[in-house]
Design goal:
The protein is mainly alpha-helical.
Length: 197
Amino acid sequence: MNALSQGMGGLALILSFGLLCARRTGLALLLFGLQGLAVSVAVAAQHALSAAALNAVSVLAVPWLARQWAVVSAAGDRTWSMPVTLAAAAVLSLVAAAAGTLALPLAILLLGLLLVGARPSPILQALGLCSLQQAAVLAASGLAGTAPLLPIAVAVPVLPALALAALLLHAAGGWPTGERPKGERPEGEWPQGDRLS
C-alpha cells in the first residue's frame, strides 16, 4: 500500500470508531458514506479504478436508499455502554495490528462486527455489515498485484444489498423484533396456577 492508500485506510478506521459512537442515525449514515469514500480513494490509489468506482456508487446508494425507504429512525440504545464499547474497539484494533499489511482492513472488519453486536438498531447493524464490505474491498486492493480482478469481484455490493433488503423488510413491518404479543408467555414457562409443586 502506498502512502495515500494507507492514509485513507487510517481515515476509514477512524470513521469506524465514529460509527460506534454515533447517537443519531443521520450522523451514522454520513459517517458510513465518508468511510466508503475514503476506502474508494484508497482503492483508486492502488490503481484499481473500476473497483473504486463500483465501491463508491454502492456506498453512496446505501444512505440514499435508506432515506428513500424511510427507514432512518432513532439509533436506539446501546447494548453496551460507551466506555465498554470503546475499550472493546481499542482491544480489537490492537489485535488487528498484528496482521501486518492487512492490519487496517482487519481492524475495520472487527469494528464492523462490533457495531453489529453492540447496537440493537437495525439501521446501525446494516451499516456494520456494510463496513465488512469496505474492509474486504480495502484488503482486496492490497492484493491487487497478485490478483488484478480480485478488487472488482470483492467490490460487488453483496453485503450492502443484503443489508438494504433487511432494512426494507424492517420498514415493511416484517422484521422480527423479539417482542412477544401482550399476554403470551415465553416458551416453557408455566402459567401461575399450573406449576408443579
